[in-house]
Predict the structure.
Amino acid sequence: MTMKPQSTTQETISAQGRKRLEKFAAFIPRIIVSGESDTIHDARVSSRRAQQILKLLAPQPAKNKQRKLLRTLRDIRGILGQPRNLDVMLHRWRKKSPAQAIQWCETPGISCAHT
């Protein structure tokens, strides 16, 4: 009976990085088709986790390809953040009573006008 050699920490982290990137990439078609807020949230969380593993793997300073990948993850997360923030605000709005909603609309910086 032969035992497999244990993988190094670097190999383990690399495998986790690939797994996280694949998981993140799988969310993109789902977002395009459904646009569901939970899917957007899950994609943003997945991109953050992938980014953290990539930062752990990347030597300082990171190589150009690694920096580009990290920047792309950050940019996509920023783009997905806009509809996610709107969804959270809409959810909060729906939970308020009509009186609370009126008071919320009168809060400085909040625009509830219909255009």
